[in-house]
Amino acid sequence: MIDIGLSKMALIGAVALVVIGPEKLPRVARTVGTLLGKAQRYVADVKAEVNRSMELDELRKMKEGVESAARDVENTIRTEAGSFEQDWNQAVSGLDSSADGSGAASVSSLDGGGVIPSYRHPGKNWRLKRGAVPRWYKARAGVRTHVQSGAARVARFRPRKSH
């Protein structure tokens, strides 16, 4: 850059005073100041735009990296899922072929002799829902199993008078 010191600025001011004159010098100085301000703002805008474009390029590179990592993860999950599905199908087909040929030998080896029951949701069957929690747990937790009125509950826990 141009090295401008205090002595050079004083020299430029003296020459401007002689050339322009004392009447027009303040107006010219204001005009020069506004032009320099506009130039500085323009340079700052250009710098900001360059920085934004550089950050945008970095974000694009980062996005591509994340997308490639996601694709790699997806591919590994698909291959693992495919190998698991093949193993599962082989195991199920092996169970079906041994169950057809030799009775229930493979099923008895799985659970000790019985057929594995499938889960059936109780739906609206209140007996199944009621039987799902053991009575000892309900008694310990204080769950009411019988409907009682407030007066009956008070009478039940009122101490009895002996005559």
From TrEMBL:
<keyword id="KW-0653">Protein transport</keyword>
<protein>
    <recommendedName>
        <fullName>Sec-independent protein translocase protein TatB</fullName>
    </recommendedName>
</protein>
<feature type="compositionally biased region" description="Low complexity">
    <location>
        <begin position="94"/>
        <end position="110"/>
    </location>
</feature>
<comment type="similarity">
    <text>Belongs to the TatB family.</text>
</comment>
<dbReference type="GO" id="GO:0008320">
    <property type="term" value="F:protein transmembrane transporter activity"/>
</dbReference>
<dbReference type="GO" id="GO:0043953">
    <property type="term" value="P:protein transport by the Tat complex"/>
</dbReference>
<dbReference type="InterPro" id="IPR018448">
    <property type="entry name" value="TatB"/>
</dbReference>
<keyword id="KW-0811">Translocation</keyword>
<keyword id="KW-1003">Cell membrane</keyword>
<keyword id="KW-0472">Membrane</keyword>
<comment type="function">
    <text>Part of the twin-arginine translocation (Tat) system that transports large folded proteins containing a characteristic twin-arginine motif in their signal peptide across membranes. Together with TatC, TatB is part of a receptor directly interacting with Tat signal peptides. TatB may form an oligomeric binding site that transiently accommodates folded Tat precursor proteins before their translocation.</text>
</comment>
<keyword id="KW-0813">Transport</keyword>
<feature type="region of interest" description="Disordered">
    <location>
        <begin position="94"/>
        <end position="114"/>
    </location>
</feature>
<dbReference type="Pfam" id="PF02416">
    <property type="entry name" value="TatA_B_E"/>
</dbReference>
<comment type="subunit">
    <text>The Tat system comprises two distinct complexes: a TatABC complex, containing multiple copies of TatA, TatB and TatC subunits, and a separate TatA complex, containing only TatA subunits. Substrates initially bind to the TatABC complex, which probably triggers association of the separate TatA complex to form the active translocon.</text>
</comment>
<dbReference type="InterPro" id="IPR003369">
    <property type="entry name" value="TatA/B/E"/>
</dbReference>
<keyword id="KW-0997">Cell inner membrane</keyword>
<keyword id="KW-0812">Transmembrane</keyword>
<keyword id="KW-1133">Transmembrane helix</keyword>
<dbReference type="GO" id="GO:0033281">
    <property type="term" value="C:TAT protein transport complex"/>
</dbReference>
